[in-house]
Amino acid sequence: MPLMFQIRPPRNPLLRILMAVAGLFVLGMFTIVGVFVAALLLAAFAVRQLWLRANGRLAPGPAPQSRPHQPKVLEGEFTVVGKVEEPLRRR
Fold first, then answer.
1. What is the DSSP string of 9-59?
2. Which positions ≥6 away from 53 have C-beta within 8 Å?
3. Tens of pLDDT along the chain (91 residues)?
4. Which DSSP state fits 64?
5. Contact indicator for 20, 27 with CB cutoff of 8 Å
6. How far is it, in rounded angstroms, from Cα 55 to Cα 49?
7. How far, in Å, CA of 41 to CA of 49, rounded?
C-alpha cells in the first residue's frame, strides 16, 4: 500500500545536521513550555488554596473522624450466602 508521502532524511550531511538541530530545538521548546504550564497550574492551585483558607471555606487541618478507627471492623453491605448442599461434580 503506497503512502501519500514519505519523510526521508536529506542526503546532504549539512542538511542532516540542520534537521537534527531543528528537531532538538523543537523538543526543547516543548519541554520548556510544558514546565511553564506545570508551574502555572501549581501556582494557581496554591493561590486557590490560600484564597479558600483565608475566606474560611476550607478547613486548615484534616477533617475530624466521626468515630474512632477500629482496625478489625470491616464496613459495608453484606449478604449471607447459604451452603451448597450438593458437591460440585468433577469432569
1. --SSHHHHHHHHHHHHHHHHHHHHHHHHHHHHHHHHHHHHHHHHHHTTSS-
2. 60
3. 566 777 788 899 999 999 999 999 999 999 999 999 999 999 999 999 999 888 887 766 666 667 777 788 777 888 888 887 777 777 6
4. P
5. no
6. 10
7. 12
